[in-house]
Every structure is written in structure tokens, then in C-alpha cells.
């Protein structure tokens, strides 16, 4: 292979693939930075809001990262001449199967996202969730950790939380 042929080969498919991945890297960086800034401004600043914005940023950044790098990978495969149609069809079927198998997990994560966005309770709040009454130690996407008066640490799946008694936001009722 001559230098001219080597240069022609490199300027073809490999260069296009490098450009795809560089573009994906830059786009991911810009999207992550912009979303973090927007979320920080939306939630303001104090310890509780920082925890909420950090959790939401992590979820959003993970979703965008998977989408951007997945698209870049598929684009690189098409540059290499791979037919991605069957791959996408297989991924769709696998997604449906995974969706049926992981319904409770998905339910927990979606409930966790709404718990955090709606700020129903946070770390340090005294709550009663079902039969458990105690202080919230952590609110994650899948579970909430509550320590009761006896010192027992309870892990409660967010998808199973139907109602919450929030004693830290207790206000007195006046009868008129």
C-alpha cells in the first residue's frame, strides 16, 4: 500500500468514525453542562435542594449519555457498512421483554423521580410511610431509607409508597 493509498483509506471511514465520536463527546459535554446549569437554577441553592438537583442531574445526564453514545455507535456501524435494521429490531424486542420483566424496578425509579421533583420529603424529615415512622436518612431513585425510634434502618421501595405522613411540616389546625 502506498502513502497515497494509506492517506485515502484514512481519510475515508476511519476519519468519519473519529469525527462521529468527537462530535458525540462534544455534544455530551455541552448538553451535560447546560442541563446541570438549568437544573441548579431551577432548584436554587440550599442543602436539600442541592441533593434534589444532584439526583435529577444524574438521571438526566445518564439518559442523555446513553442516547448520545448509542447514536454515535450506531452511526459508526453504518459507516462500516453494517446493516443496523436487524440490530434495532432485536433491541426493540429485548426492550419489550426487559420492560415486562422489570416492571417493579421501573415503577420504583419513576416513583423516586416524582418523589424528588415534588419534594414530598427529604433527609432529616420525620415521616410515617406505611407502618414505619422515623427520620428519613436517604431518598434515592429506587428506595427511601428511614431509621425508626428503635434504631432500625428501613429500606422502602419508592414504588410501594402509597401515602406519607409528614410530621416535619406539621402545622396546627385552628377550629373556627
Strand content: 5-15%
End-to-end distance, in Å? 94 Å
Which class of secondary structure composition applies to the elements? Answer: alpha+beta
Radius of gyration, whole Å = 24 Å
Q: How many strands, which pairing sense, and closed or not: the largest β-sheet?
A: 5 strands, antiparallel
**Shape, per Cα inertia axes:** elongated
Average pLDDT for all residues: 86
User: Regarding quaternary structure, how should these chains be classified?
Assistant: single chain
What is the topology?
Layout: H1 3-10, H2 13-43, H3 47-79, H4 85-101, H5 103-118, E1 126-129, E2 132-139, E3 143-148, E4 153-157, E5 164-166
Antiparallel strand pairs: 1-2, 1-5, 2-3, 3-4
Record keyword descriptors for this entry.
alpha+beta; single chain; five-stranded antiparallel sheet; 176 residues; elongated; 60% helix
Summarize the structure.
The protein is of the alpha+beta class.
Task: Write structural notes for this entry.
The protein is an alpha+beta fold and 176 residues long. It has helices at residues 3-10, 13-43, 47-79, 85-101, 103-118; strands at 126-129, 132-139, 143-148, 153-157, 164-166. It is built from five helices and five strands; from the N terminus they run αααααβββββ. The protein has a five-stranded antiparallel sheet with strand order 4-3-2-1-5. A hairpin with a 2-residue loop joins β1 (126-129) and β2. α2 (13-43) runs antiparallel to α3 (47-79). The radius of gyration is 24 Å and the shape is elongated.
